[in-house]
Please model this.
Amino acid sequence: MRARLLAAALIAPLLPAGCAARAPSAPPAAPPVTAAAPAPADATATDSSSPLDAVVRPGAAWYDASPLMTSLRQRERPRLLEAVGVAHLEDLPLYDLTVRIDPAAGLFDLDEQLWFTNRESSPLGEVELRIYGNPEPLPGNQPSRGPLITMSSGQCESVACTIFSPSPSLLVVKPPKPLQPGDRLRIRLSLQGVLERRNPQDTGLLSQGIASLGALSGAKVQSDYGLLSVCGGFVSMANFYAVVARRRNGAWDKPEAAAFGDIGPDELSNVRARVIVPALYHAITPGIEASQALLPARGDQPPARRYDIGAAAVRNFAVFAGDGLQSVSRNVDDVTLRSTFREGDQKPAERVLDVAQNALAIFEKRFGPYPWADLDIVEAPLVGGAGGVEFTGLVAVAGMLYRPFEPDDPMMRLLPALGAGTSTQISSLMDATLEFTTAHEVAHQWWYGLVGTDSRDHPFVDESLAQYSTIIYLEDRYGQARARKDGDTNVRMNYVAMRMLGGEDGAVDRPASAFGTPIGYAGLVYGKGPYLYRELRKSLGDQRFFAGLRAYADKYRFRTAPGRGPVDSLAAQADGEKVRAIARRWLDERHGDQDLGPIDMTSLLTNVLGPDAGQLAPAMEQLMKALEPGGP
Model:
């Protein structure tokens, strides 16, 4: 989802990205929505104990993962070990995190303990850790600043080891002797971090559209999408702790400079976290909140609130926190859905909650059960053209989609004058974009969260499938006409915009680093790749197509799928040779213009906005020419 709005940003200065929403069919009856503000300071316990204290007991030889299992649905727990493929859940890494966040200063301190087991079949002479919040410098770029996260100390428990940092995102831990298969190592790190300050005015739809236009012109600018920042007091923290590096072909994955695509961990882990924020702050994280405690002022430390969080079998962990945040929630079966928002945004937050509930039901029916006990959606000030970002059991949706235009925004007068529809139609367009974004991120709970993928070597596997899954959501909820129209706007448009900017058609299945530009990545991974599944569905028929996706989800549940995992599962249903031929056409060959045409601005605008919008085509074509490399 991180790149999906890049193509939409082409027309953001003139009109919002989205499509006209027809009246939806009546939604299914929903449980009551309950609204809740953060608990007042005197409503929480001051006792420092937590049920999660049992995870790590003093003097114990190893940690106990059983208290973390409450983050999973009851029905999921008996089959978890078999699904994960370990003898004991404690064989997964445990990240034991204590993080104190100071939003006013824009700083955080982190005490991290990593409980690591060598699950390889050969000895490990070193353990490599990655701090993905510190990007590697792009070739030819001079770093504008030092790393955001630094290590002040590091050691191994019970044994002497050496810990050093060859590059900003890499820590190397060398124990006194190689770790044999099954050997365990405890690593303690003290890290300090800086949160980049973001101006709230820079996170709006118009500002992000203009910023994305600059990126589309070919400049390679690294962006963490605002995921390690403080913006108007709101804290976003992802990739803030050290994680075990990926292993490829028996070797540690080396650091890679990247300007786009997903950067972060892919493998399963367990997390116990103590998140300490100002006393009036509300924190949102993956996992289950086991307890909450008010910490009195001590010395120069003001009163604070501590959240004790447990998460089992997750692929990442993040923290979002802010003052005055509110939430609406629903309990559906044994899953708690929660939508957290800033003041004044309850209406779009309730809309997001409704979309998440319906998407969850549709995807469970199509792909199999959602495994975790919670699903959180949080309004966050994302930047870099990101409409949303996924984590295990947590979705962040860009605040620009909650309030794209203020009531007195001059754009709400300008757009109708340009032929982009009435203010009511424009609001409908943005609502459709908010819905598509939310459903796409919920789809990632299956394609990346439950079924792991290699997001650097094969980014299409989860992104293209999440895009098509969102089309399935629209079709199941509203019918084929709405699904086709919204698909054109939010999926096909990425490819059309890429081609109109001079980008070349090419292979969809390749490493993120091989795409060269953000618009090429968005056009092929988000725009062309999803239609592979449309063609496979036509070939196989609905029954075999959905049986194949269900089999794919079952086979790789809590594991990591290979690069052609979905194709292999669909080929096993029937007509395997034909399925693989279709996959080659869409993933390896160059037939996009033929398969997805026409590639012209008039068709694009009229399809998205209606026949009157065609008058905008000449201006948009001039804008596109200006954005092409070497353009005026």
About this structure: Residues 461-599 form a domain with the Neutral Protease; domain 2 fold (CATH 1.10.390.10). Residues 272 and 498 are 43 Å apart (CA to CA).
